[in-house]
Write a structure and sequence with these properties.
Layout: H1 8-13, H2 17-25, E1 29-33, E2 37-44, E3 47-54, H3 60-79, E4 89-93, E5 96-100, E6 104-105, H4 106-112, H5 119-139, E7 142-143, E8 152-154, E9 160-162, E10 169-170, H6 198-201, H7 208-224, H8 233-241, H9 254-263, H10 274-294
Antiparallel strand pairs: 1-2, 2-3, 3-5, 4-5, 6-8, 7-10, 8-9
Helix pairs in contact: 4-7, 5-7, 5-10, 7-9, 9-10
Length: 297
Amino acid sequence: MNGYGYLYDLRARYPFCTIAQNMLAGNTTLVGNGRVRDVYLVEYEGRKVALKTLRNMDDSRSQRVHLEKHKREILTLDAMRGHRNIVGMLGLCDTMVVTEYYTTSFLRAIFRGRMELPDLAVVSMALDAARGLQALHETAGSIHVDLKPQQLLIDDDGRVMLNDFNSAHIMSISQAGDGTACPAQSTKRNLPTPWPSPENYAGEPLTPASDIYSLAMIFFSLMAASLPYEGNPELLARAMSRQGRPEIDPSWHKGFMKVVQDMWHQTPQKRPSAKRVVVRLQLLQAEIYSESVQAGQ
């Protein structure tokens, strides 16, 4: 059964083997190629979908590791099926998975936003992203580990969805019996980027709070309409060494930036949970909407 025995029940809900093979044999466009898998844009029942397929690795140990990550992604997607802020899985077949496809990412929204998005739009997009992360943490019991703007997609109606769970870590309950979740291991970083948490760079265990930090940096970028530290690795490295954070423009919405500041707290235990972030953003959204109505906007 090629190590996929426990996924066969999922296949009954997502019967895609023959269809996926036909997709690859037909009209395809390569839209992404990482170190271990390729992503193709294909058509299914008149709609564009993404077909992700693992490459064959020369090293058998690496192949096993990436197969295991692939299985975790499938289980994570299945646990969150139907959530409006999670990219939906449409089918699977061994080393292939088919998901919904959207062309716009948060990264494009950030740079498109150099014209500055209204506060209500920023908070609404942030709320969608936080709801997706809450589902990942609570429903799927997973940590994303690799959260960055490219992993957040936007549909034609402006709805934000969390995507790409290939690096996700499924949390398990600690054997200590204290009800805490087993953390994930930090990932190796060749060059500094603004998205990983300080504990990730320090080689410390990762928890849901690590995702919260990453989401805070994404929220900052959405408000600033630019990458933190202007995308300069040297500025980022200096800031990280002194526990610094990007500079906040005093003209930005103070309530929203207070949420962001709490989310990027240096101490993971002091960062709010995804659920708490959702609650605070809901209140902010209602407040900003009410103010705009009163102002006649």
